[in-house]
Amino acid sequence: MCMYMMVEKNEEKKEEPIADLKSVVERLEKANAEKDALLRREEELRARQILGGKTDAGVQPEPMKPDTPKDYIRKVLSGEIQLER
Questions:
Q1: Which of 28, 40, 62, 75 has the fewest C-beta atoms lying within 10 Å of its C-beta?
Q2: What's the rounded Cα separation, in Å, for the pair 83 and 65?
Q3: Largest alpha-carbon pair distance within the chain?
Q4: Please, what sign has the CA dihedral across residues 15, 18, 19, 20?
């Protein structure tokens, strides 16, 4: 193998990682731009909800209904409820 071919292969190897890095950077920049756009949309939606009176504040979970005797027995037998002795 002549020296010229070896130098040419080394130059190709040096350029490949740089090209790979450039493509990775481009993908990251594109993903960041998409994320920024989604964040802006989410902020606008949240502001509209607040201004429209739709917030999560004051939302109460549904009250728990008491267990029937059959439900209580089923939970005890399945081990969901531990009895104290």
A1: 62
A2: 21
A3: 91
A4: positive
Q: Are 49 and 55 in contact (CB under 8 A)?
A: yes
Scanning the structure block, which residue is given the tokens 């439900």?
A: 71
Instruction: Answer whether 83's CB lies under 8 Å from 76's CB.
Output: yes
Q: Which residues of the chain have pLDDT under 70?
A: 1-15, 54-57, 85
User: CA-to-CA distance for 60 and 48, rounded, in angstroms?
Assistant: 22
Measured CA to CA, the distance from residue 75 to residue 85 in angstroms comes to 17
pTM listed for this prediction: 0.42
**What's residue 35's pLDDT?**
97
Alpha carbon distance 64, 72 (integer Å): 14
